[in-house]
Each structure stands twice: as structure tokens, then as C-alpha cells.
Automatic annotation (TrEMBL):
Transmembrane annotation, as ranges: 39-57, 94-120, 132-152, 183-208, 235-254, 291-311
Keywords of this entry: Cell membrane, Membrane, Transmembrane, Transmembrane helix, Transport
UniProt entry tagged with the keyword Transmembrane: yes
ABC transmembrane type-1 domain location: 98-312
Principal localisation: membrane
Gene3D superfamilies found in the cross-reference section: MetI-like (1.10.3720.10)
Name of the protein in its database record: Sn-glycerol 3-phosphate transport system permease protein
Family, similarity comment: Belongs to the binding-protein-dependent transport system permease family.
Cell location: Cell membrane
């Protein structure tokens, strides 16, 4: 049949205009706006309530306390503006605390990555006995951080501890692991690296096992040596995992409390007094209960972690091969 002149002008080829308009109104299912089912809100409500109570409310309370003075009983005594921040930033001990925090975090992250690679690379080879060694290396993951810190504290005891006993075999005297400032910082780093080594090795093993055999065989056919294949092929292919470990362990190092508090409590002097330990002492130590000053330090810690993570993602992510 031949359509009318209006149909020909409209380009519908004789099809009724009413039908075309109706078809355009019918959207595919994926483009239709989805309405949340009331039962979804019912089941999500407990999770939202827990999140608001234990995550966002303490954060908002911290911002509030940072602008408040504190009376002898630890209760807010009134609005003081930025006084808590000014007192903190003009105190030389605070900047020493920041320096100790960065040294501790940097040494801890480097130790976990380098020692983790030194363990994971040999274990990634298909040699006899490596399955058993993998299980042994992952033992630190099953040990409580508090238990590990207390055991290491016994091993660091001057004179009678395992470390001094071993150094005594070589004619060295007591090292003062927990009493000398330089050795105390090294001691807490050793324990933190030991506690976090299991998860680092586990992630690196998974990444190394995921490197395609075809790629390694092709590199070998091209005449590359073992170290060249490791440096130019394996390590670039596991950079996403290395990047993940750097980010997460940097945050963990900034927030570490248990190891330092149980081993040294921030001492001797201020040798291991990281920002988290300083927050704890300001809020609960020495009977001060200065929650306003502690909250200001907590906000600074939050800003440092956010800034450090942002810099790492901007700088290091460019070197990650996805």
C-alpha cells in the first residue's frame, strides 16, 4: 500500500506516526529508573546505623572536641577556636613526634616490602618443600599482635633476652634494645615488620603465581638471565600488588598503637613517641584527659594519612602496570 503524502514527508515509510512515538517512549529495562524496594531500606538500616554510630559520629565528635577546652574531668569547657591547634603546632615536641612517626612508618613499609619480596620470590618457584615453607612463613598472620609484642619484649630484655644472648656469643655486650633511643625505635620496627610480614608475603606470592608462564618462557627464549627476567618482567607485572601493599601498610604504620605501647610506651624519652601514642597519652595518660588537644592531634593524623595516600596514588600509580 502507498502511504499518504504526510507519511512520506515525515519519513516513516507509511508507518503511522502514533506507533513510532509510542515505541520511543518504551525504554529498555536497563534505562528505566529503578525504585528501591522498601524491604531493601529495612535490611540496610542496621548497617547504616552501625556505620553512623561507630564511624561517622566519633569523627564528627572529634572535630567538635578539637574546638573545645577541657576541664579537670575531661568534659568540654567551652569553645576555644583554634587554640588547641596553635598550642600543638608551636610545641617543638609535636614536630619531633611527627618526625618519629614518619621514620617509623617508612622503615616499617620498606622492611615489609623488601623482606616480603626476599621471601616470596624463592617460594614462588616450584621446588620441593616450598608448600611447607609457605605455611611456615604465613604463621605470623595467625599470631595476635599483642602476643607477639609481649614475646618480643621478653626476647629484648637486657642481658637475659634472646637477642642479647646471641650477641653475647660474638663478644658483644647488651644492646639496650628497649632502653637506648636508637635501638628502641629499631626494636619496634622489627616487631611491626614481623607482625605484618605474613600478609605481605601472601599477597606477593599470589601476584608472583599469577605471572603467565608464557611471558617468562618468551623472555627466556630471548636470552634474558634470571635477574633480568625478575627485574624487567616479574616485578613490573606485580606492581599493582606492590602498590596496594605500599598504600595499606603506610596507613597501618601511621595508625600502629599496640606494638609500640606494649614494647616501649613511646619511650625511652620520646624515641618511639609516634602520633598515635601521643594522642593516647594526651587523652588518657598522666591524668591529663585533655580531649581537646588529643582531638586536634587526631585531625592532624587524619590529614597526614589522606595527604600521604593522595601523594602515593598520584606519584606511584603512574609506575603501576595494570
Amino acid at each position: 500500500m502507498v502511504g499518504t503524502s504526510h507519511d512520506r514527508l515525515s519519513g516513516t515509510g507509511g508507518l503511522p506516526m502514533k506507533t513510532a512515538t509510542a515505541d520511543q517512549r518504551v525504554k529498555p529495562p536497563e534505562q528505566r529508573p529503578r525504585r528501591a524496594h522498601p524491604w531493601a531500606w529495612f535490611f540496610l538500616a542496621p548497617a547504616f546505623l552501625v556505620l553512623l554510630t561507630f564511624d561517622y559520629w566519633p569523627l564528627l565528635r572529634t572535630f567538635f572536641l578539637a574546638t573545645q577546652g577541657t576541664d579537670l574531668f575531661g568534659a568540654p569547657s567551652g569553645f576555644v577556636g583554634t587554640d588547641n591547634f596553635e598550642l600543638m603546632l608551636t610545641d617543638p615536641r609535636f614536630w619531633n613526634t611527627i618526625l618519629v612517626t614518619f621514620i617509623y612508618t617508612g622503615a616499617s613499609v620498606v622492611g615489609k616490602v623488601l623482606i616480603g619480596l626476599a621471601i616470596a620470590i624463592p617460594l614462588s618457584s616450584r621446588l620441593k618443600g616450598t608448600p611447607l615453607l609457605r605455611s611456615i612463613v604465613l604463621i605470623p598472620m595467625a599470631v595476635s599482635v599483642a602476643v607477639a609484642a609481649l614475646v618480643f619484649k621478653m626476647m629484648f630484655q637486657p642481658g637475659t633476652g634472646l637477642f642479647d644472648q646471641i650477641s653475647g656469643l660474638f663478644g658483644a655486650g647488651p644492646a639496650g634494645w628497649l632502653t637506648q633511643p636508637q635501638m628502641a625505635l629499631l626494636a619496634v620496627v622489627i616487631v611491626d615488620v614481623w607482625c605484618g610480614l605474613g600478609i605481605s608475603v601472601l599477597l606477593l606470592l599470589a601476584a608472583l603465581d599469577g605471572v603467565p608462564e608464557e611471558v617468562m618462557e618468551a623472555a627466556q627464549i630471548d636470552g634474558t638471565g634470571t635477574l633480568q627476567r625478575l627485574w624487567h618482567v616479574k616485578l613490573p607485572l606485580i606492581t599493582p600488588t606492590l602498590f596496594f601493599i605500599l598504600i595499606t601498610q603506610s596507613i597501618a604504620g601511621m595508625r600502629e598503637f599496640t606494638v609500640i605501647n606494649l614494647l616501649t610506651g613511646g619511650g625511652p624519652g620520646t624515641a618511639t613517641n609516634t602520633l598515635v601514642i601521643d594522642i593516647y597519652k594526651t587523652a588518657f595518660g598522666s591524668g591529663t584527659s585533655d580531649y581537646g588537644a588529643a582531638a586536634a592531634r587526631g585531625i592532624v593524623l587524619l590529614l597526614i594519612i589522606v595527604t600521604l595516600t593522595f601523594i602515593q596514588m598520584r606519584v606511584l600509580e603512574r609506575r603501576v602496570h595494570y
